[in-house]
Amino acid sequence: MKGGKPRSMLYFLSARFSGKEIHTSWRPNMDVYEADQAVVVSLEIPGVRPEDIEIMQYADRLQVSGVRRPGSGETPKRFQQIEIVCGQFEKEIILPLSLRGAPVEAALSLGILSLRISKETSGGAGVQKRIEIEAQ
Question: For 1, which of 54, 66, 121, 130 is 20 to 30 Å away at the CA?
């Protein structure tokens, strides 16, 4: 960026999009913050079980997808009000060059999925892999 203030890596995580059209029922809210050793991405996904979430790490992005199922075991006879959206969701997080291939840890606690992206890269930028979720 000429003559201006350099942008932080948080700008790239929150402001860039892949341009890919995503057809889902809902999109989780997301917070991104930078700590000393990692960048942390938190996704709000209440009511979603760890086994219903898939996190994939690609060379340039993280992709979080899954499904929120209706909560009650009962079959509704008649709805009075519906505000909790169920169904498929997906969120893509485009990574800046400095975080591509970095180790990622995932934890799910109280409806918040936290992804810790280490600032220390591992050199595996071209590898596609599934990230396991630690349920707390």
Answer: 121
- Compute how many other C-beta atoms are within 10 angstroms of the C-beta atom of residue 89: 22
3-class secondary-structure state, position 37: coil
| Residue extents of the structural domains in the chain | 26-70+81-135
Domain 26-70+81-135 grouped into CATH 2.60.40.790: yes
pLDDT one-digit tens code per residue, 119-136: 986 656 567 899 999 987
The low-confidence residues of the chain, meaning pLDDT below 70, are 1-24, 72, 121-126
Q: How far is CA 52 from CA 47, 65, 85, 87, in A?
A: 10, 8, 15, 11
Query: How far is it, in rounded angstroms, from Cα 62 to Cα 113?
Result: 13
Beginning with the edge strand found earlier in the chain, give each strand of the sheet holding 104-109 in spatial order.
Answer: 30-34, 38-44, 112-118, 104-109, 133-135
The tokens 């596609």 sit on which residue?
128
Write out the two tokens for 26.
Answer: 């809902």
